[in-house]
Design goal:
It contains 35 helices and 30 strands. With 1046 residues, the protein is of the alpha+beta class.
């Protein structure tokens, strides 16, 4: 007969009791040790290669530097896309590996990038600095602090931040602490060009004097019989006054540098990217957590440490918390835990109401046990608590009681028929364990495409598979081992005299209704066959019999509804991932290309003045000249640029965030004419940026720009798109110094001499370093402020010749105004302009807008010359990547499903029939998404795939029951009808538990669409299983009613 696990459990009750207690304790301990984070970890397969080439224009950088690097990087394995931009003096190449790159291979891919670039470094232009590599693109600085102080300069703030940084690094689970907005110190020696020419001095003479006096060179040492004694010549600068006192010789005279130049201590100019907090210049500290750490515990440790540091700060300094991932995670986890608790209560109510107190208690006691085993499995597979795993737990909760309900219901039915408890438990295993295991495996298989998806989105959502697989397999084991034992101990005797319960006394009508439909405390008197002969079951029997008799009408009607649902699916809006419920609002300010950092800061200060008057803001920070560090894993991080600033505004709540967002959008529509602004919420899932994007690529920049302008015009005609813009467009202003080579040679000058002179005058020349403790401060020689700020004086500057005389620059060169490319973006070695737009209305999603724009671009696409193309980007492109990676898992999904069903049903024909019922759940999915106005996003798609497994689970249990009844001697017609009647209660109860457990998830912005889709699909699938599957089975096997004996 085979091994009966339930019978074994009842023979070894002490061992079962021990397992229950042990697993419960292990579950609690595992839960306490689970790491907590906001998002699941996923790997950023991006590496940044940055190279500096001072003096080169953007086009020179693009053609001589960027192109060579890109060409070599095309040889790296797993390369997907090479994106780059070239600015004057700077090349940045973003190496983007394929989404399908195995995570374990990513470090080796990054090593190959370094190796390939190292191979060609000798062929790159002379005078470059770098290349520099950054493969820590995905590091998250979950806590960011701002150090401010009235009356303190950057040097004093930095000295304090170094002390604070050392304190923070001692906090457990802190991986690293980075400084944000640091401004390096400089000592500027400002020389008037006119004064130098008058004195017959040149910059090189001053530079040599400073460098020689401040040089660190060995003075030797005495080696005596007992000791070694070093010689230390004096002269190194120990004060700024010592620099002023340094002397130089000119025309036979000795001059102090302080007499011919202004010597002052300051900070790097133009400034490095700045960090501003609440309208004040500040220094930031970004704290990153070690991998696998507990963000909540880290948050508590950081709060205690920061409070201690704050008490020790000098008067006037303040350390404020700018971003706190622990607070966001706690808020998110609290919300999900509350939803999980609500789901547990809902499931318990369903069990107690439908099965009665003691029978419901059997199912209820299995829930914490299965959850405990699930937590243990999560600990083993390194799955922490985050928004994905917690949502998956709620989803699993509605499914993990299914097996318990099926097992206890079958045991109860046999006890109602007069069977002894242990015999009823053994029979429940014999009749349901196989179908339950097959159904469980099929449901788990429904999550397989998520598990096998080789993409960032697959990695982001993989814990849905892990959590559900662990929970479902644990629930089957609980149903065949623990539930029989609990049923043996707790189930009431259904044939004993019925007692009036408290519920029946206070709610008599509801009690009578429960009795009529076969729910409530089990009680039955009569023969075995009378169990399913109540008026309710008789009515349902007639309904199923009618469906079997009118099978083609039922099948035709179902298929017609399915076809209508497929048509209706076109009305459901598509989505990639919904926006995050984080309280931050991002505001990007982008000035025209070529704008200075000072101009960017002026616009930032203007917005700060507006924000200072706004209500509902907890704090705001501005990153001037760069984007925010990655304080949130899916952040669309922006690279440094002098014409860019980003605000991160922390609001006091979601209503305040949405109200501020509306006011900011309106503000930028009527004000700030000198820039392009973008107001966004934080995203969920892999970052996308602008939701609607189209890329125009081709070999010739003017042609690409012309077609990109046409695409932008088309996009602007769409009423749902706002802030349509090109990612690069404007040209930059330049002063061209046309050197007359003949005249220059006559006075002994070259183009290099002219360029060096101008660079020293404007940007400065590092002469030496001033050493102060651990700091090394550059001493920079440059022209005075008047000469640096007035373009009209360039031609009048006197340039020293090798003969010791000076000549005006105008005598050897002509100065004129011109324009050039200030920025060149490329994609896979071709100039590429991205036309992008923002959607500010809630009523429409990015894929819908993209689909509306695409047909309008066809006339432009048809006119494109050979070698030019228009590609779709944004949310549609990222969604397609995730979709294709999930689709790649479908063959495995189908292979597992067919294998499991073939083993269980033993018939290919029945297996195909069961599989064909799965897509019909889309009827309910489409109906509910339209009814509740929810988009069909990536998470909803994953839920729908999993729904197919849930539907086939019920179908396989019903079909298996039909086969069992046929084997017992029933006619096929009667077996179909009676099986549907027998499986009515467990199928309806499991569906009710799963559907009602989803209700708390519908409030979630992330999981809401998936919950709605599964609820609708399961409700319709339950009706189909009970009514359509019998009709399909009868039609499939051409079943005829057995003739009535006369």
């Amino acid at each position: 007969m085979g091994f009966n696990l339930s019978e074994w459990a009842l023979r070894h009750q002490p061992l079962v009791r021990y397992l229950i207690v042990a697993l419960a304790i292990v579950g609690v301990l595992s839960y306490e040790k689970l790491g907590q984070s906001e998002d699941p970890p996923f790997t950023f397969k991006v590496m940044v290669v940055r190279t500096e080439w001072s003096g080169a224009s953007a086009r020179e950088v693009e053609e001589q530097l960027t192109d060579r690097i890109e060409k070599k990087l095309q040889e790296v394995p797993y390369v997907d896309t090479l994106r780059s931009y070239s600015r004057p003096g700077e090349s940045v190449v973003l190496f983007i590996a394929k989404d399908s790159t195995p995570v374990k291979d990513v470090p080796d891919v990054f090593y190959q990038v370094r190796k390939k670039i190292g191979d060609i470094k000798g062929t790159l232009p002379a005078g470059i600095r770098g290349p520099f590599f950054n493969d820590e693109f995905g590091d998250v600085f979950g806590n960011i602090y701002a150090l401010t102080g009235d009356g303190f300069d950057y040097a004093q703030l930095k000295a304090e931040t170094e002390r604070i940084r050392a304190e923070l690094l001692r906090v457990p689970n802190v991986a690293k602490v980075d400084l944000i907005g640091e401004q390096e110190q400089r000592i500027y020696v400002e020389l008037s060009n006119t004064k130098l020419a008058t004195l017959g001095l040149d910059v090189q003479t001053v530079t040599s004097a400073l460098a020689q006096q401040n040089a660190v060179v060995p003075g030797g040492y005495f080696e005596t019989k007992d000791e070694r004694i070093y010689l230390r010549p004096s002269g190194a600068f120990d004060t700024v006054e010592a620099i002023r006192a340094t002397t130089v010789r000119a025309g036979g005279r000795e001059l102090r540098i302080g007499d011919i130049a202004t010597v002052a201590r300051g900070f790097v100019e133009p400034p490095a990217p700045r960090f501003r907090f609440q309208g004040q210049d500040a220094l930031g500290l970004g704290v990153s957590m070690t991998k696998g750490g507990d963000i909540i515990a880290l948050g508590a440790d950081l709060k205690a440490t920061v409070a201690r540091i704050q008490a020790q700060l000098p008067v006037g300094m303040e350390l404020a918390e700018v971003a706190s991932q622990p607070d966001a995670v706690k808020r998110s986890i609290d919300e999900f835990v509350r939803s999980l608790a609500e789901a547990v209560i809902i499931v318990l109510v369903v069990c107690f109401f439908s099965l009665g107190l003691r029978t419901g208690l059997v199912v209820a006691l299995s829930i914490p046990l299965v959850l405990g085993v699930t937590f243990f499995g999560m600990r083993l597979f390194d799955v922490g608590l985050h928004k994905i795993s917690l949502g998956a737990l709620i989803l699993a909760l509605g499914l993990l009681v299914d097996d318990a309900i099926i097992a206890v219901e079958m045991m109860l039915v046999k006890m109602e028929q007069g069977w002894e408890r242990s015999r009823a438990a053994a029979f429940a295993y014999t009749s349901t364990a196989g179908p339950m295991l097959a159904g469980t495996l099929v449901t788990v298989a429904g999550f397989l495409p998520i598990a096998t998806a080789q993409s960032s989105t697959g990695e982001y959502t993989r814990s849905i598979f892990q959590v559900n697989a662990i929970a479902l397999l644990a629930s089957w084991l609980a149903a065949v081992i623990v539930v029989p034992y609990l049923g043996y101990v707790l189930l009431p005797d259904p044939r004993a005299p019925k007692k009036t319960s408290w519920f029946a006394t206070h709610f008599p009508r509801l009690e009578r209704f429960k009795d009529r439909i076969g729910l409530g405390d089990p009680h039955f008197e009569g023969d075995e066959d009378e169990v399913f002969r109540t008026p309710f079951y008789n009515r349902f029997r007639r309904l199923v019999d009618g469906c079997v008799a009118r099978r083609w009408l039922v099948i035709g009607t179902t298929l017609a509804i399915f076809a209508a649902a497929m048509v209706g699916f076109g009305l459901v809006q598509q989505q990639f991932f919904p926006n995050s419920t984080r309280l931050e609002l991002l505001v990007d300010l982008r000035l025209p290309e070529g704008s200075s950092l000072r101009a960017t800061q002026a616009e930032a200060e203007k917005l700060e003045a507006v924000l200072a008057k706004e209500k509902g803001i907890a704090n705001y920070v501005a990153y001037v000249g760069t984007g925010s560090p990655r304080f949130y894993l899916p952040l669309d991080q922006q690279l440094p640029a002098p014409n860019f600033a980003q605000f991160v505004i922390l609001t006091e709540g979601i209503p305040e965030r949405e109200a501020l967002r509306a006011r900011m959008i309106e503000l930028f529509e009527r004000d700030f004419p000198n820039l392009r602004a973008n107001v966004t919420r934080l995203e969920n899932g892999p970052p996308v940026g602008f939701p609607v994007q189209f890329r125009v690529s081709g070999p010739d920049i003017p042609t690409v720009r012309r077609y990109a302008a046409e695409v932008a015009e088309v996009m602007r005609t769409n009423p749902h798109l706002s802030d349509v813009q090109l990612d690069w467009d404007e040209q930059s202003k330049v002063l061209r110094v046309e050197v007359d080579q003949h005249k220059a040679r006559l006075v002994g000058l070259s183009t290099q001499d002219v360029a060096n002179f101008l660079n020293t005058s404007q940007r400065g020349l590092v002469a030496t370093s001033y050493r102060e403790g651990i700091e090394s401060i550059d001493v920079v020689l440059r022209g005075d402020a008047l000469e640096r700020d007035r373009l009209s004086l360039v031609a009048e500057l006197s340039i020293p010749t090798r003969a010791g005389k000076s000549v005006p620059l105008a005598q050897i060169a002509t100065v004129g105004y011109a324009f050039e490319q200030g920025l060149v973006w490329r994609r896979n070695r071709e100039p590429s302009i991205t036309v992008r737009g923002q959607i500010y209305t809630k009523s429409i999603q990015a894929p819908t807008v993209t689909a509306a724009v695409l047909p309008l671009l066809e006339p432009i696409r048809a006119r494109l010359p050979a070698g030019y193309r228009i590609e779709t980007g944004g949310a549609v492109e990222e969604s397609a990547k995730g979709q294709s990676s999930v689709n790649a898992g479908f063959p495995l999904f189908l292979a597992v499903v067919f294998t499991v069903l073939m083993i269980q049903l033993g018939s290919f024909s029945r297996t195909v029939m069961v599989v064909l019922t799965a897509p019909l759940g889309l009827i309910g999915v489409v109906l509910f998404l339209l009814l509740f106005n929810q988009p069909f996003g990536f998470v909803a798609m994953l839920g729908t795939i999993a729904l197919f497994g849930m539907i086939m689970r019920n179908s396989v249990i019903l079909v298996d029951q039909i086969e069992q009844d046929v084997e017992k001697g029933l006619s096929i017609w009667d077996a179909i009808v009676e099986s549907a009647v027998r499986r009515l209660r467990p199928i309806a109860l499991t569906a009710a538990a799963a559907v009602l457990a989803m209700i708390p998830l519908t409030r979630s912005a992330f999981f809401g669409p998936m919950a709605v889709a599964i609820m609708g699909g399961l409700i319709v699938a339950t009706l189909l299983t009970l009514l359509f599957v019998p009709a399909l089975y009868a039609a499939w096997y051409r079943v005829r009613r057995a003739p009535t004996p006369e």
